[in-house]
Every structure is written in structure tokens, then in C-alpha cells.
Amino acid sequence: MATIFCDTDGELWYTHAQGLGLNVIRMPYILDGKEELADLGETFDAKAFFDAMKAGATASTAGLNEEAYYEYFKPAFEKGEDILYIAFSSKLSGTFEYLELAINRLKTEYPNVKYRRFDTLSICVGTGLLVYLGAKYCREHGDDIDATYEYLEGLVNRTKVYFVVEDMKYLARGGRISPAKAKIGNLMNIKPVLTVVDGKLDVCSKQNGVKRAYRFMYDVFAENYSGMEGVPICILDADNKAAADDLEQRIRENFPNVGEIWRQPVGPVIGVHAGPGTVGIVFVSK
Description:
The strands form three sheets. This protein has a six-stranded mixed β-sheet, sandwiched between helices. The protein has a four-stranded parallel β-sheet with strand order 2-1-6-7, with helices on both faces. The model has no long low-confidence stretch (mean pLDDT 93). The radius of gyration is 19 Å and the shape is globular.
């Protein structure tokens, strides 16, 4: 049986990860000086987290060091089974430099173990959805990690992430935009619709007001949604249930045969950068 790894930056809900027998790499975040490890929603109190951010709590993220990665992967190498790590975008963090150092050590110690890392070129449930689909495919196809890798290659550019942030200051704090742009955008009530392109965050549209931004996000979904059987639509929110409810209702009204829709909160590692009020959608496009 192949060993499949994922990380909490992918935000696949913990029940799915447990059901598929995944090994989860827990990424750190810091809230008011206290470091925690994300756990895919198992114990995370989203409302308390985003309430703290609204109240002015400082929040940030961190990567893992070489030794942490070594300890995560060593038991899998010791088992001698094939290993597949379906990871968040390598272009969004320097943590993978330390991962590679750890893996190189383990390959020297266990030269006969096959290890592959698939870069989803995404983040949040854009990664999580690919983890879910890839792990299901792997389990259903004899734990063939090479075939799974090829399967994921056919989906990676079709897995779309769109989200609208309520306050741009959190993007600025995380270094995603300049503080000046965030201040001007907030003053002018400009709401960017963000996406992920080639593994990096990008602005696909700037709308005047949050309602227009939500509408644009829905229109992009409606135009591109594939309706692929067995592939859920994912709607996320950072303590903004009303807006997420409206988005789900609009989809169900206009796509009466729609399949499963996952609803879950934005997790802490992504929430640090997106901030309270964020709403997003993830789906597989045509």
C-alpha cells in the first residue's frame, strides 16, 4: 500500500484525510505570539480565530525546518513502500528547500524507496481537492503512484480557485500586496477577485464593491464549471456564512443537477493572509 502525504495548507477537511488514510504534514501558524499546528479543522475554532484577528491579534505563518520534515517522512521510508506527497504550490513558500534537504538524506539512507512529490501549483482547497481526487484514484488503481501522478497532471490546470477578501490589509501584512495599495483599495471600496495562476496569487478582476466582486466570482464559475461526475464544488468562508450561503444558493438554483458541494471554513494558515470575511470557491473547470 502506497503512503500518501498531504499538508494542512491544502485544507482538505480532516474527515476526508482520515478516510483516505493520508499522512498529514501540519503547517504552523502564530496567533498573538503562540505557535500552533493546523489540523485540517479537527480542533480549529474558526470563529474564535477570526474574531481574534478582527480584534487586532497579530497573525502570521511559518514553514517547517529540515528536521521536522525528516521526522514526518522517516517512518514512511522505513516501511519501504512507495511515497506520494501531493503538496501545495512550491512557489508560495520557501519551506520546500528544507523538505528537499530532508528527502535527500532519506534517499541516501533508504535508496530503494520510490518517492514523488506532486506540485499542485495551488493553495487552500485548490490543493485539497487535488489531494482528495488523487488519493481516491491511487487507492482505486492499486496504489500506483506513477499513474496517480499522471492523473493529477491532467487536472492541475483545470482546478480553479477564486476568492474575495473583505479587507485588503491582511494581504498587505502577509506581503502579498503593498500597504499603500491595500489602503487605497479599502478607501475606494475596491474589491479584488483573486485567483491562483501557475502557482502564484494573482488578481483576475477589481470590482467596485463586494457584491459586484461576489457576482463576478459566480459568473466565472458559471461560465467554466465542468460538472465532472464525482468532483465536488468547494465553498469556503472566513466567518462570512451569509455570503457563502448566497453563493451556494445561486449555484443550486442555476445548476439544479449539481453534485456535492463542500462547505467549510477557511483554515488558519490561509486565513492569516486572507483575513476575516473572505469567501472563496474551488472547482474543476471545463
